[in-house]
Design goal:
Number of helices: 1
Strand content: under 5%
Helix content: over 70%
Oligomer: single chain
Order of helices and strands: H
Structural class: mainly alpha
Number of strands: 0
Length: 50
Amino acid sequence: MIEQGKCIVNKMESLAVKEKNRLINSLIHKIARIIPKKVSVISLTDKHFV
């Protein structure tokens, strides 16, 4: 019975890790998409100031 409980906990932990990794990956993708836009905006404003 205890072994079965450990197995369930391990499965839940691995699922949590997978979910966390998925969230981190999606955050990285979002940030990666946002950064180029900001950089292009900054370079455009720099040209206006020069």
